Amino acid sequence: xxxxxxxxxxxxxxxxxxxxxxxxxxTVVLIVGALMTFGAVMVYSASVTIRGAEFxxxxxxxxxxxxxxxxxxxxxxxLLTAFFNYRFFAWSPKWGGWAARLPAxxxxxxxxxAMVVPGAAASRLGSARSIVVFDGAFTLxxxxxxxxxxxxxxxxxxxxxxxxxDVRDLRxxxxxxxxxxxxxxxxxxxxxxxxxxxxxxxxLALLVLAGARWAHIALLMLGGVVAGALLILIEPYRxxxxxxFFSETPDPTGAGYQIQQAMIAIGSGGWWGxxxxxxxxxxxxxxxxxxxxxxxxxxxxxxxxGGAAVVxxxxxxxxxxxxxxATAGDSFGRLLAAGLTxxxxxQAAFNVAVxxxxxxxxxxxxxxxxxxxSGVLFLGAAAGLLAxxxxxxxx
Amino acid sequence: MRGRVVVFAGVxxxxxxxxxxxxxxxxxxxxxxxxxxxxxxxxxxxxxxMRGEILDTRGRVLAGTVRRPSIYVDxxxxxxxxxxxxxxxxxLGLEPGWLEHLLLExxxxxxxxxxxxxxxxxxxxxxxxxxQRRLNAFVVRYEPRREYPYAALGKRLxxxxxxxxxxxxxxxxxxxxxxESRLQGTDxxxxxxxxxxxxxxxxxxxxxxxxxxxxxxxxTIDAYIQERAEHHLRSALERYEAEWGVAVVMDPQSGEVLxxxxxxxxxxxxxxxxxxxxxxxxxxxxxxxxxxxxxxxxPGSIFKPFVAAPAIEAGLSRLDESFAINGPxxxxxxxxxxxxHAYATLTLEDVVAKSSNIGMGxxxxxxxxxxxxxxxxxxxxxEKTGIALPGEHAGLVHDLANWTAYSTxxxxxxxxxxxxxxxxxxxFSVFCNGGLLYRPRIVRGIISASGETVLDASKPIxxxxxxxxxxxDEFRRRALVRVVTxxxxxxxxxxxxxxxxxxxxxxxxxxxxxxxxxxxxxKYCGSFVGGAPSDRPRVVALVTIYKLSxxxxxxxxVAAPAVSAILADTLAYLQVPPELPADRPxxx
Lengths: 395, 588
Prior knowledge:
The structure holds two protein chains of two kinds.
Chain A: H1 6-13, H2 26-47, H3 50-55, H4 62-83, H5 98-116, E1 121-124, E2 127-135, E3 139-142, H6 144-160, H7 170-191, H8 193-209, H9 214-234, H10 236-246, H11 257-269, H12 294-327, H13 331-355, H14 373-389
Antiparallel strand pairs in A: 1-2, 2-3
Helix pairs in contact in A: 2-4, 2-12, 2-14, 4-14, 5-6, 5-7, 6-7, 6-8, 6-13, 6-14, 7-8, 7-9, 8-9, 8-13, 11-12, 12-13, 13-14
Chain B: H1 4-41, E1 42-47, E2 54-55, E3 61-73, H2 81-88, H3 96-105, E4 112-115, H4 120-133, E5 138-147, H5 149-152, H6 159-162, H7 174-178, H8 180-184, E6 188-193, E7 207-209, E8 216-219, H9 223-239, E9 244-251, E10 256-263, H10 278-287, H11 291-294, H12 305-313, E11 322-324, E12 329-332, E13 335-338, E14 345-347, H13 348-353, H14 357-378, E15 396-397, H15 405-410, E16 417-418, H16 421-429, E17 436-438, E18 443-447, E19 453-456, E20 462-465, H17 469-485, E21 503-512, E22 519-532, E23 539-546, H18 555-558, H19 560-573
Parallel strand pairs in B: 2-8
Antiparallel strand pairs in B: 1-6, 2-3, 3-4, 3-5, 6-7, 8-18, 9-10, 9-23, 11-14, 12-13, 15-16, 17-20, 18-19, 21-22, 22-23
Helix pairs in contact in B: 2-3, 9-19, 12-14, 12-17
């Protein structure tokens, strides 16, 4: 072990020995693999509409087929990164820290490209979120926000555990870090507000874990609220969603329609559901049924019990991530494991909150489960990286 | 690491809260949300019940219902409009360009008629193309439609009796209206689960209630007699260029209406034809009315028997009593009554046969208003007969308190009173069945869709005895036969027919002005009511022809030939044995 950070050296001097290299964490891989497989099944269920096939109105098979392919790709990416040594991303003098910076830089460039390059951005529900990679028999889009989410965690974990870095120093430690992270978050937030909020929350969590000053964190939160308000004001539909959430009588045909239909889906499933594939809300009633609102379809078909089981899997992942973070052999691993776990599980918690009408509607998908190629691919890679942290765990 | 437990526990709490919220939604709102889901996801569709038929007395269908296939399309489901239009239009005999335009115009709609009421050939060709090219957005819908089999043969029958149905297949006139609740049946219902475009999601229904088809109404009308009556009525109207006429044929022994015709009639499939001017529409509206029950008119001389016969029964006169007429004019107080011929004396029998107004005036004087009123009411005038048809008019008989000295002469010659054709035929039947007034019946019964008798109305209903049997028979055999043999209905071209002895009474009345002030100078209403055979009458018929030109306005001339022709055809059809020897000379 030649590349140890300052913090780690301190801990080793405390007398606790780092463990030798072992295997990746299989539990994480199993949990995430289960979620991805389940997701592919549910996307299939939510997308297949019998009459659609009969009337030739849509290529009903396109979405489930693509989701199955991406679930496989996501599993492959997870296994690949699980075998990969996560320490590649740790700050190292050899690479000049560029290994950690690379994903974040790439994400920033792609986010800019999505906004600037004409025709590159495909509008989806009013937000230009994806770069169209291929458009022919099927459309293949790439969502830089999904990459940005993971890249931010890697870069933060690396930067915060860099030798000689002091997060408590506002001018030379805290401010530059938050500034750079802020650029990535705002770039994401222009087209994808929900993901930006999530990234902000993860940033806060990592700063807390890394021991930043409370005063600095409070200042950052204030800045975050201002930035968030600005992002809301530049897109009228965000304002509408928030107003809808707080209005006393939601208009069932307007902006409140989606959440109303989600509630009907959850309610009509009962405790045990209508049965897999037997849901009815997917027949045009619930918009985004195979995507952001897949949990509502899960609840309709498999009941509250089914929905709770999905949440339980995320809780299991959270617990496992906590264990990995606690037992990681180095501080980078600890922070990386915590960041990745929180990123995934916070997203899941946000999604559940949106679907259950607990917070205003925003475009947040359920990790590993919702339809969407980039999400499954990059979150799969992130989960693999998390599993990889297990290889240097202390026993 | 500082605060790791707190941060992780916080996220865990968020996730757990989410799961708890799922359970809470189910717990607190589950039933309400499930009801909401059921409401929005299910569609109710009515399965229309088949409307019952209207049958004649022998079970011949006068009005029936068929289901005709029609094609509609959900344009929002069509992706390739040109392909769809060019596939479907040719088999339905439509212009592909027109269909393509329709699909384009209605592309955001879910429904558009492609073609209503297609033929069987078109249907099978359409189904083949739809199956091959998977154009399931085109759908067949079967729609009920009232059919009139005789109209299809070019002889529409009893239009005003049957009435007609509106666009929603509800009866708006005639028997269709009167028996609406029996005919319509009860619609069935199916409930299916649908998507947001209201397309069924399952091949089976969630709930199905079979429709209960409507019951059929059996009339006393006989299609053959009805056709004959309409034929002879129409001929008479055309011959005398009359505005309209009524014919009613009845079985006097039971009160059953065998035929009831009003002409001009209308097409029940299109009662008010499209594209008429306001004035033409008003005229067409007039033709919808069943004048045999809905129109009351002043009867004139045809009314004389209804005063003469009861006067005999009351012992006020005899058939052979001579009246000093001293015509052609006679003064009754301040009023002068005229006869068409100058008679010196006439027996009561001849007063009726020759239709002497003076003779009736003298008889009226002898009866007095009180008795006259009682006679008139006894025959059922001034009250509805209760026939099972909508819009019956009661006629008009003033209260006795309002009668004047004029009434004493007016009533015996059929003035100051108005009656309906159905009242006249029913009252005249009293002379044919031994003095009984039967309630006229046009419905024999109702048969449910499953063939059970729901209502049996085949039994005759006696309202009251009007005359003693002997008085009625003698009045018929002598006075009413004499009208035909020696009176106003005499001669082959008037009321007589071969093989049977006809009896009856002519009548000509002036037409009251629509403003109620006097009579129109050159418009007359000619009527003849008659029956045959005279010995035991089987048929009674009335023909009234309204608003004639002044060239031939006597009831005997205009209406009697029509009645005799109807009687002849009906008696032959009923296979009534001939009454008169073939070689015996006829007439008096």
